[in-house]
Design goal:
Structural class: alpha/beta
Order of helices and strands: HEHHEHHEHHEHHEHE
Helix content: 40-55%
Largest sheet: 4 strands, parallel
Pfam families: DUF2229 (PF09989)
CATH architecture of one domain: 3-Layer(aba) Sandwich
Protein name: Putative 2-hydroxyglutaryl-CoA dehydratase
CATH topology of one domain: Rossmann fold
CATH class of one domain: Alpha Beta
Strand content: 5-15%
């Protein structure tokens, strides 16, 4: 814990320190932790597509928190443009080959593009499952609960009791990521600047949920995150203006 710069750091930041310490204890010879300043462009109403301000450059923070030279570990934290697959694959290939000369640039590029393909296929599966769950819920006349959060907040280690509780109450549960694509074409006035890629997906999901009578919308946020209050208020405005049920659950870390 002594390597964590602030006790107010968010859960994934703290988890990163623990993961790095675990790798050190396993006596690895190299650690590759890229930085992602921008995410993928996902919303038509977004004015920017920044990553979380804390985690986007956390590779540099880790570099300043551990003495990797003294530990005999090669540490590499390049910035990668993950929002552009082809460009990023070239940058990835160059950086990986520089760090590990035995790996050919073309092989690293191909591996990255295969990863992008798998990611896009997974995203399509998530969207399809969301639509199927909505259709099946309506066929059975069951209400639907949308859980909106940053990815780590869905993890059972962080909030594992919420989904089972909702299921027990008769709700079918879907994530904001599974319906965000249904809301991106809904144009509504914003009270904030829509500048972060994950928040854009959450707000698109809120726009869609606001038009659905059988939805409730639950926003999971953390005390240690400085970005979520604005997103929370905007989602609340979308839902409340349409008379829909909205809840914000703050999870202490």
């Amino acid at each position: 814990m002594e390597t964590i710069p602030s006790e107010a750091a968010c859960f994934p930041a703290k988890l990163t320190h623990g993961h790095i310490q675990d790798l050190i204890e396993r006596k690895v010879d190299a650690i590759f932790l890229p930085q992602e300043l921008y995410g993928r462009i996902v919303s038509k109403q977004a004015v920017e597509h920044y990553r979380c301000a804390m985690l986007s450059t956390y590779g540099a923070m880790i570099n300043n928190s551990f003495d990797f030279d003294k530990l005999g570990i090669k540490y590499f934290t390049p910035a990668l443009p993950v929002y552009a697959d082809e460009v990023c694959s070239q940058r990835f290939g160059d950086k990986v080959h520089t760090f590990w000369p035995d790996i050919k640039e073309k092989d690293a590029q191909s591996a990255y593009l295969e990863g992008c393909k798998a990611y896009n296929e997974w995203r399509d599966e998530v969207k399809k499952k969301g639509e199927e769950t909505i259709a099946e819920s309506r066929r059975r006349h069951q209400p639907i609960a949308v859980l909106a959060a940053y990815p780590y907040q869905y993890d059972g280690m962080h909030c594992g009791a919420i989904t089972p509780m909702l299921l027990q109450e008769g709700y079918n549960v879907i994530t904001a990521d599974s319906i965000a694509h249904l809301g991106t074409d809904i144009i509504k006035p914003y009270q904030i600047l829509n500048m972060h890629s994950t928040d854009s997906r959450i707000m698109d999901a809120a726009k869609y949920a606001a038009n659905q009578e059988d939805f409730i919308f639950i926003y999971l946020s953390s005390f240690g995150c400085g970005v979520t209050p604005a997103c929370n208020e905007q989602c609340q405005a979308f839902l409340r203006n349409m008379g829909r049920m909205y809840a914000n659950i703050k999870i202490d870390q």
